[in-house]
Amino acid sequence: MNAQQQPFRELYLANFDFVWGALRRLGVREHDAQDLTQKVFLVVYLKLPQFENRSSLRTWIFRICINAASDYRRSAPIRREVVTEPAEMAHLSGFQDDLHERSEAQRRLALAEAIVEKLPESQRLVFILFELEEMSGVEIAKLLGISLGTVRSRLRLAREVFTREAKRIIVHEEAPRKQALR
Amino acid sequence: MSDPERLLDDDGADPEVRELLRSLRDLRPEAGTATRSWGPMAARVAALPVLATATKAAATVSPVAEAAKVGGGGAWKALTFKLAAGALMTGLAGVGVVRITYPPRIPETTLAPPETPHVAPRTELPVPVAPVTAPVHEAPSDVVRAPSPVLRRSQLDEEASMLARARSALRRGDPHAAAVTLHRLQSAFPAGELAQEREVLSVEVLAANGDTAAAKRRAQAFIAAHPRSPHDAKLERFVEAP
User: Fold this and answer.
1) pLDDT for B38-87, tens place per residue?
2) Which chain A residues touch B13 with a CB distance below 8 Å?
3) What is the DSSP letter of B132?
4) What is the pLDDT of residues A88-140, one digit of tens each?
């Protein structure tokens, strides 16, 4: 490793998990996450001289993540691993068994990803930034270049969809269990 | 008006909904992934040519280190090193967030003429066939297993090293040697991680050898195949060449 890479290594190690997690929450599949994380860091490396400290380091990196994930979603076919439509679920023999074979945590994560996937991109971004990345409304408005009112409106709509879909799936999953217990 | 309470903090929110959200929030890579992946990352960074002044400046001031320490503060304004404007990016076509301005190319008149009598005629340079139709950002297969991280790192290191040798040969005015190395690189890593960089360098080699028509064709094909590639800006001058 040369002298120039050493400080970048520190930056990389300090922020790798953050970038990886952000990309995953933005819809990047697990087996693509590491490669895309490195591509984000290459952009960070190259654009470092242009960073003007108008936002925090992580916000700046997060913007790069958003662009990278957006391009990824456009270029790579996003295959849903979990079907959430009840009608489809009913026709997939063995689906429930398959779900139960997964660990509870994996099952929950797959469901959450599938629900977030249903949100329109504009709502999904605001939802993820507010609920999961824990940014404030003002920060999100600045990051996305939209008004605070638009942030709140999108957040409200996204919450409604997420909650409704989550409850629908939970109810659908619970029904067979309850029937089995009768 | 303040922000609403986050669902994860809201005791009144549905517990099942919060559980689903928590699973997303807690996503993180396997422990040690960052450290293990640094090798391939370093190889990718090493494949980016940096101006001599950059290395010199980096040795005296370490803006990245400062930034890493402060987590984004005023120190970032102190960035004093400049990455080579001609830096080649590794497979960033899919990222599409960088547009690099490239420096003026070294005039061909400054390239040393071939020194050895056995140098092949320009038209016979074995510049590898353009792999421009090969998608760089393919969705990984669910069936084919990827090489192990160690193997991938080793391969990437070797690929980056060969690319650096080819570039070095071109810069010292030996396009023939550069073409030979590129040909070997193409044979060894036909679908390598640095395929785009290899193709861009191939175009440069063709031009340096006087085959501007071929360079133009290859540059056009590359831009057509990778319309969002950060390399396009560099290749446009070959397309615009008479």
Assistant:
1) 988 888 888 776 533 333 333 333 444 444 443 333 333 333 233 333 33
2) 163
3) T
4) 444 444 445 554 545 778 888 888 898 998 899 889 999 999 999 889 999 99
Alpha-carbon distance of B226 to A141, in angstroms, equals 32
Set of chain B residues whose Cβ sits within 8 Å of the Cβ of A34:
29, 33, 37
Report the residue count for chain B: 242
The rounded distance, in Å, linking the Cα atoms of A137 and A155 is 9
Q: Is A39 exposed, middle or buried (0-12, 13-18, 19+ CB in 10 A)?
A: buried
How many C-beta atoms surround the C-beta of residue B76 within 10 A? 20
3-state secondary structure of B12: coil
- HEC string of A16-78 equals HHHHHHHHHHCCCCHHHHHHHHHHHHHHHHHHHHHCCCCCCHHHHHHHHHHHHHHHHHHHCCC
Distance CA A33, CA A141 (A): 26
> What's the Cα-to-Cα distance from A130 to each of A111, A126, B78, rounded to whole Å?
20, 6, 31
**Do A46 and B98 count as a contact with CB atoms less than 8 A apart?**
yes
- Can you tell me the distance from the alpha carbon of B16 to that of A156, in angstroms, rounded to the nearest whole number? 19
- What are the helix (H) ranges across chain B? 15-25, 33-46, 52-60, 63-70, 149-171, 175-188, 195-208, 212-225, 232-239
pTM of the predicted model as reported, rounded to 2 decimal places: 0.52
Burial bucket for residue A85 (CB in 10 Å: 0-12, 13-18, 19+): exposed
Residue B242 to chain A, least CA–CA distance (Å): 32
Q: Quick one: angle between helices B175-188 and B195-208, nearest 10?
A: 150
Which of left, alpha, beta for A94 (phi over 0: left; psi -120 to 50: alpha)?
left
Task: Residue B38: list chain A partners with CB under 8 A.
Answer: 9, 12-13
From the list A41, A12, A37, the residue with the least C-alpha distance to A22 is A37
For residue B120, CA distances in Å to A8, B124, B165, B177, B206 come to: 42, 6, 19, 10, 13
Chain B contact present for A80, CB below 8 A: no
Interchain contact, A46 vs B89, CB within 8 Å = yes
Cα separation, B27 vs A136, in Å, equals 20
